[in-house]
Specification:
Number of domains: 1
Distance between the termini: 36 Å
CATH superfamily: Lipoprotein like domain
Number of strands: 6
CATH class: Alpha Beta
Shape: elongated
Largest sheet: 6 strands, mixed
Structural class: alpha/beta
Order of helices and strands: HEEHEEEEH
Radius of gyration: 19 Å
Helix content: 25-40%
Length: 158
């Protein structure tokens, strides 16, 4: 009877998607604010919605507007275009869009899992193309990577 009591007293909940949710039922994501001149409000909104989509599709949690069991808020701290491949005539043949976001994660059920981290991802594009012509595609590539890394760092325990 003592063994049964000990085993029922310890519980960790895992999902089939590999996440550890510790009994959480809800999550909230505040608008990820652009804090750099080049990051547009349109990009910030797209990133925020992309992260909500990842959480809804990969976790059993429900989205709530505020005060979820798991809370996310953040800022876009870098949005930069830099040359990465230079040709022999000293002109760039490839450019890189790099985006850094700082995320504050609060687990109201297990505060020792809280963190504040920066995440950086990038995508390259030919210098012969304008950023405007490829920006939507680059956003999608970068957001896929950023949102998955935030998910893994918070509920995936990576």
């Amino acid at each position: 009877m003592l063994i049964a009591l000990l085993l029922t007293g310890c519980e960790i909940r895992y999902s089939f998607s590999g996440g550890q949710f510790s009994g959480a039922k809800t999550f909230s994501v505040q608008y990820i604010k652009p804090q750099t001149a080049l990051a547009s409000p349109a990009y910030a909104q797209r990133l925020t919605e992309s992260f909500k989509d990842v959480m809804l599709s990969q976790s059993p949690l429900s989205l709530t507007e505020t005060k979820g069991d798991l809370q996310y808020e953040g800022t876009i701290t870098q949005y930069a275009i830099t040359p990465v491949a230079v040709q022999s005539n000293e002109t760039a043949s490839l450019n890189r869009l790099s985006i850094t976001i700082k995320i504050s994660y609060t687990n109201t059920l297990e505060p020792d899992l809280n963190f504040e981290k920066s995440f950086t991802k990038f995508a390259d594009f030919p210098a012969s193309q304008s950023l405007f012509s490829v920006e939507e595609e680059l956003w999608q590539q970068i957001n896929d990577q950023l949102t998955q890394e935030i998910y893994n760092s918070s509920v995936g325990n990576w």
